[in-house]
Amino acid sequence: MTVLNFTDLILRLRFSGDVSRNEILEVSNQLSKSEPAQRNTILYILSLYSHYSDMGTVISFYGDLLLRAKLGLAISEEEVSTVRHDLQEELISSSNFSQSAKAHVSPAIDYDKLDTLISVLGWHNDTSSAPLVAQFLDVRWGGRLMSSALIALCRRWGMVNKYRNRLLDLLLNTNPAYEEEARVTAIEVSGEYLVDSLDAQLLRQLIHIFESKTESPFIRLRAYGALSEAMGYGWADLSWSHNLPLKHSDIMKAVNLSVVREAKRRLSIDESKAASGDFRH
């Protein structure tokens, strides 16, 4: 059997795609027998090949960085600095953009690239970039980039306490310019945070969103999913709802109301503690 040179395979996949199917099959066969330290390298090679097969081109520089970051593979400080620099350049170049809710439709912004750059920093756990990433919480960047920034700051880096006011702002839906994508992320992140943390205000708002018929059925279901997560039931499987025209009546048939009752009991306890000064209310 030919001994594969992973470094050579990676270089060819990154820059030319000149790799035979037999080589990839041999790599794939090694996956089940690989040591944990080698497993992610094999997954990286297979992902590079999959991208080339599907797209007909080698993966981009930034796409490669994101793939490596997700797999926990090495990223150099020079590469991270490049990502930070490019994000900063985008902020500077867009400094004269309109602050209106429609600014995010500007063709001058490469949203795919920015989404990837923010995600690289998030997965790489580059918490020193938090002030830079937080600038994308501004509504002018649109729901997609706001969502990516929230994921990096709150889910990846655990900075909910620092950015809690923005989370709450999204839950309260105080700005009609906020897009649904960013609001859904705020709902999900709040549910994850409440698994191990006490925050009566966030919990109260999730309950309110679920019970409010002025919210869309889609948003109400996301709030229920967050409550299920927060109460220790795990994230509710809501995949059935993605492609259906939802009605409010559908929600009550699909959810476990004991989750909501338990959330209200916890809220009552948490609010009592808050009133006595035990923790934030």
Topology:
Blueprint: H1 6-15, H2 21-31, H3 36-55, H4 61-71, H5 77-93, H6 111-123, H7 130-134, H8 142-156, H9 164-172, H10 180-193, H11 200-211, H12 217-230, H13 248-254, H14 257-275
Protein described:
- With about 280 residues, this protein is mostly helical.
- It has three domains: about 60 residues, no CATH class; about 100 residues, no CATH class; about 90 residues, no CATH class.
- About 65% of the residues lie in helices and about 0% in strands.
- The chain contains 14 helices and no strands.
- The longest helix is centred in the first third of the chain and has 20 residues.
- It is globular, with a radius of gyration of 22 Å.
- It starts with 5 loop residues before the first helix and ends in a 6-residue tail after the last helix.
- About 0% of the residues have low confidence.
Number of strands: 0
Categorize the overall geometry: globular
Gyration radius, in Å: 22 Å
What composes the largest sheet? none
In short:
It is built from 14 helices and no strands. By secondary structure, it is mainly α.
